[in-house]
UniProtKB/TrEMBL annotation:
It comes from Leptosia nina. Residues 518-547 are annotated as: Disordered. Its main location: membrane. The keyword Transmembrane helix applies. InterPro entries: TM7S3/TM198-like_dom, TM7SF3. It is found in: Membrane. This is TM7S3/TM198-like domain-containing protein.
Length: 547
C-alpha cells in the first residue's frame, strides 16, 4: 500500500517538474507611450515567473523618437538571469536588479528572464526609451561582464557599502577615450528601517525610476573622489536604493538613468532580521547598558564613586576598542571582551584616583570629555559628506578633538552642574543606545560611525547620510526627555547637599574636609558644611553597588 502511495507521489512530482521545465511563457509588449523630458519610461508592470522557468519578452516599438531602450528587471532578494536571444557568456546578467541595452534598429532584441530559483517570483519589468543625443548608461563599461551594462553593482561589508557604475558613453565619444564627456550623479533613498517586505521594496524601486521621481524622492550622494564609485556607511537592516544618472556635459538636457539597485547591508534570507549583535556578550552588554544608563541618568551624581568607575570604564573601553581594532584583526566577542577587561582596569584606576586625591575638577573633566566626544560625533554625523578638506585624517581629527575639548572646557567651568548634566546626557544616551538596537532605529550609529572613522581603513571617503525616520525621531525625543528629567531630578536630589562628597581617603595635605562642603565655582547656594550632616552623606556614599 505504502509503496503504491510512494510511487504515486514520485509520479506527481515528476509530472509537476516536467510542467515547470516546459513552462515557457511569451509576452509581447507594445511600446507606444509618449515620453516627456522627466519621464522616459515606455512600459512598466509586474510579471509572475514560476520556479525554474523562463519568460520570453518581445517588444514592438511604435515611438519614432526612441533610438535605444534599456530593459530592466527587478527582483526582491532572489537572483535572476536576464539574457538576450542566446544565453551566452557576455550577454547575460545575473542579480536582483539587472538591465540590458538594445538598439531599436534594426529590431529590438528578444529578452529572456530566467528564474532559476525554486520558488515563484514576482518581478518588476521596466523599459525606458532614449533618443539619439542621450548618453548610453554603461556604454563605455570596462569592468562588468556585459559589453554595455546599464545597471549598478552593490557590495557591502559590516562597515560600508560600495556602489559601482560602469562608465557611460556620450554620443560625441565614439571610442570611449574620454572620461569627461558625461558626469555621473548618484542618488539614494532609504526604505523604512527593518522592513523587508516585497511591497515596500518595489514601491521604493518605482520611486527611483524616472528623473522626475528621483529628484522628488532621492537624496544626492556627494562624490568623494572615487570616480564611478560611491562609498556609504552601512546601516544593516535599513534598506537603501541607489541610482545613477548620466548627464552629457555638452548638452545638459541629454541624460539617461541606470537601472536602480538596492541593499539591506545584510542578507535577510540568511540572517533573518539582520541582528548584527547576535553574540551573547553583545546582548549582555546591551542589556546592562539599559540599566546602568538609567542609574547614571537619575542617580549618577549621588553615587559619585560608582559614576567615577563607570565613566572610567566607558572611556577606557572605547579607547581600547579603537586601539585594538587598528592594530589587530579580532572578531567581535574577543574585541569586546578585551575592551571590557581594560575598561574595568581604567574604571578602577579612575576611582582610586578620586579616592585618594579627590579633585572635583579633574574627576568631572573625564565626564565632560565624554559629552564632548558625543557632541563631536553628532556633528560628524550631520556633515553632508564630499568635504575634501575633511578627508585628510589630520584635519578631521584635529577638528574633532578641538570641538570635543571646547565643549568639555565650557562644561567643566561649572563643575557641579556640569557633572549632573553629563550624568543625565550620557546615561540617557546609554539607555537610548540599547533601546535603539531593539527598536531597529539608527541613533546608535552616532558613536559607531565615529569609531568606524577611526578604525576602518579608507572610511574617510564614506558618505554617512544616516537614516532619520520616525523611529529615530522617537529615540531622539526619548534621549532629550530622559536627559532633562534626569538633570532635574538629580538637581533636586542634590539640593542642600554638599556639591561633591568628600573623597574617602584624601592624601592631599592641607585640604580641610569642609572644602568640599562649601566652595564650588559658581554655586551661589547657602554653603553647608559636611560635618553637620555626616550621616546622610556617608550613608548615600556607602552604596552597596560597588562594595
Ligand atoms: C514562445 O515563443 C517561442 C519562439 O517564438 C516558441 O518556441 C514557444 O513555443 C513559445 N511559447 C509559448 C508558451 O507560446
Ligand atoms: C498603445 O498600444 C495599446 C495596445 O496596442 C493600445 O491599447 C493603446 O491605446 C496604445 N496607446 C497609445 C497612446 O497609443
Ligand atoms: C517625438 O518628438 C516630437 C518633438 O520632439 C514630439 O512632437 C512627438 O510627439 C514625439 N513623438 C512621440 C511618439 O513621442
Ligand atoms: C502574480 O501572482 C499573484 C499571486 O501569487 C497574483 O496576486 C498576481 O495577480 C499575479 N500577477 C500577475 C501579473 O499575474
Ligand atoms: C530546472 O530545469 C532544468 C532543465 O530546464 C532541470 O535540469 C532542473 O532539474 C530543474 N530544476 C528544478 C529544481 O526543478
Ligand atoms: C545573488 O548573487 C550574489 C552574487 O552574484 C550572491 O552573493 C548572492 O548570495 C546571491 N543571492 C541569492 C539569494 O542567491
Ligand atoms: C545581446 O546583448 C549583447 C550584450 O549587450 C550584445 O552584444 C548583442 O548584440 C545583443 N544582441 C544579440 C542579438 O545578441
Ligand atoms: C540636447 O538633448 C536634447 C534631449 O535629448 C535634444 O532634444 C536636443 O536636441 C539636444 N541639443 C543639442 C544641441 O544637441
Amino acid at each position: 500500500m505504502s509503496v503504491i502511495k510512494c510511487l504515486y507521489y514520485v509520479l506527481i512530482v515528476l509530472f509537476l517538474n516536467s510542467l515547470n521545465t516546459t513552462n515557457a511563457e511569451n509576452i509581447t509588449i507594445v511600446l507606444n507611450n509618449t515620453l516627456t523630458w522627466g519621464n522616459k519610461e515606455l512600459y512598466s508592470d509586474f510579471v509572475n515567473v514560476t520556479a525554474n522557468s523562463t519568460l520570453q519578452v518581445d517588444c514592438i516599438n511604435k515611438n519614432t523618437n526612441v533610438s535605444y531602450i534599456i530593459f530592466q528587471v527587478h527582483s526582491h532578494l532572489y537572483n535572476i538571469t536576464l539574457y538576450n536571444t542566446t544565453n551566452v557568456q557576455g550577454s547575460s546578467v545575473y542579480g536582483t536588479n539587472v538591465g540590458l541595452y538594445s538598439s531599436v534598429l534594426p529590431a529590438i532584441d528578444t529578452f529572456f528572464i530566467w528564474n532559476q530559483n525554486e520558488i515563484d517570483l514576482i518581478l518588476y519589468i521596466s523599459i525606458h526609451g532614449y533618443g539619439l543625443n542621450d548618453p548610453i548608461p554603461g556604454g563605455c563599461n570596462m569592468e562588468f561582464p556585459v559589453p554595455i551594462s546599464p545597471y549598478l553593482r552593490t557590495q557591502y561589508n559590516k562597515d560600508y557599502i560600495l556602489v559601482d557604475a560602469p562608465s557611460p558613453k556620450d554620443k560625441m565619444d565614439v571610442k570611449c577615450n574620454s572620461i569627461d564627456e558625461v558626469v555621473l550623479v548618484f542618488y539614494k533613498m532609504n526604505l523604512p528601517e527593518r522592513s523587508f517586505d516585497a511591497d515596500v521594496y518595489f514601491d521604493g524601486i518605482m520611486k527611483m525610476m524616472t528623473i522626475d521621481n528621483i529628484q522628488e524622492n532621492g537624496e544626492f550622494i556627494p562624490d568623494n573622489g572615487l570616480h564611478n564609485r560611491r562609498m556609504l556607511s552601512a546601516y544593516p537592516g535599513v534598506g537603501s536604493i541607489y541610482v545613477a544618472v548620466a548627464i552629457s556635459v555638452a548638452n545638459s538636457s541629454a541624460y539617461s538613468v541606470y537601472a536602480p539597485t538596492y541593499t539591506y547591508a545584510c542578507s535577510p534570507i540568511e540572517d533573518g532580521d539582520c541582528d548584527v549583535y547576535d553574540d551573547a556578550l553583545s546582548q549582555i552588554i546591551l542589556a546592562s547598558l539599559l540599566f546602568l544608563g538609567l542609574f547614571v541618568c537619575y542617580y549618577g551624581h549621588r553615587f559619585f564613586k560608582t559614576e567615577m568607575f563607570l565613566i572610567g570604564l566607558t572611556s577606557g573601553g572605547i579607547v581600547t576598542y579603537v586601539i585594538i581594532s587598528i592594530m589587530a584583526d579580532l572578531d567581535r566577542p574577543a574585541l569586546l571582551g578585551a575592551s571590557i577587561l581594560s575598561g574595568i582596569c581604567f574604571g578602577a584606576i579612575w576611582l582610586l584616583f578620586w579616592w585618594f586625591y579627590g579633585i572635583p575638577l579633574l574627576a568631572v573633566f573625564l565626564s565632560t570629555l565624554n559629552v564632548g566626544f558625543l557632541f563631536s560625533a553628532i556633528i560628524y554625523n550631520g556633515l553632508p559628506g564630499g568635504l575634501i578638506a575633511l578627508q585628510s585624517d589630520v584635519n578631521f581629527w584635529s577638528l574633532f578633538i578641538f570641538i570635543m575639548l571646547t565643549t568639555s572646557l565650557l562644561l567643566v567651568s561649572m563643575t557641579l552642574l556640569s557633572n549632573i548634566l553629563c550624568c543625565a546626557i550620557l546615561g540617557a544616551y546609554a539607555v537610548v543606545y540599547s533601546m535603539d538596537y531593539y527598536m531597529g532605529s539608527s541613533v546608535r550609529y552616532i558613536i559607531i560611525n565615529s569609531v568606524r572613522r577611526a578604525t576602518v581603513p579608507k572610511f574617510n571617503r564614506a558618505v554617512l547620510s544616516p537614516p532619520f525616520e520616525w523611529k529615530d525621531s522617537l529615540m531622539c525625543l526619548l534621549w532629550v526627555g530622559l536627559a532633562m528629567s534626569g538633570f532635574l531630578l538629580q538637581h533636586f536630589q542634590n539640593y542642600g547637599r554638599p556639591p561633591f562628597p568628600p573623597p574617602p581617603r584624601s592624601v592631599r595635605p592641607g585640604v580641610p574636609r569642609s572644602f568640599y562642603g562649601t566652595t564650588v565655582l559658581g554655586s551661589g547656594r547657602q554653603p553647608r558644611v559636611v560635618s553637620r550632616h555626616p550621616r546622610s552623606t556617608v550613608a548615600s556614599e556607602r552604596s552597596p553597588l560597588l562594595a
